[in-house]
């Protein structure tokens, strides 16, 4: 029975480290993105995303050091917030900095 609990603890710790890595990646991207890109794309402000992703990284870190449970509501909210940023906001704001002079209707030419 002890081996099962040890294996489950390892699995949940790996999940917690993954939550922290995901939220950290989203936070670093948000810090490096110019504030103008958020306004142009119609997404929430950069300050709000930095606040949300900062809290997500904090809760992800707390789960990784086993201060919070991986299944706590804060850790789950961290995954959801980071996922929304990476799936919706990141692709939209990333396109703002890629403007070039030789752009056609189907891409560069």
What does this structure look like?
With 109 residues, the protein is mainly alpha-helical. Helix content is 72%, strand content 4%. It has helices at residues 2-32, 35-41, 46-64, 73-94, and strands at 103-104, 107-108. The chain has a two-stranded antiparallel ribbon. α1 runs antiparallel to α3, α2 (35-41) packs across α4 and α3 packs across α4 (73-94). The radius of gyration is 18 Å and the shape is elongated. It starts with a helix and ends with a strand. This is DUF2516 domain-containing protein. The chain crosses the membrane at residues 6-28, 48-65, 71-89. It comes from Streptosporangium longisporum.
List the helices and strands and how they pair.
Layout: H1 2-32, H2 35-41, H3 46-64, H4 73-94, E1 103-104, E2 107-108
Helix pairs in contact: 1-3, 1-4, 2-4, 3-4
- Dominant shape: elongated
How do the helices and strands follow one another from N- to C-terminus? HHHHEE
Largest beta sheet: strand ordering: 1-2
Class inferred from helices and paired strands: mainly alpha
Chain oligomer state: single chain
**Computed CA radius of gyration, to the nearest angstrom:** 18 Å
Global mean pLDDT: 86
Biggest sheet features: 2 strands, antiparallel
**Share of β-strand residues:** under 5%
Number of helix segments?
4
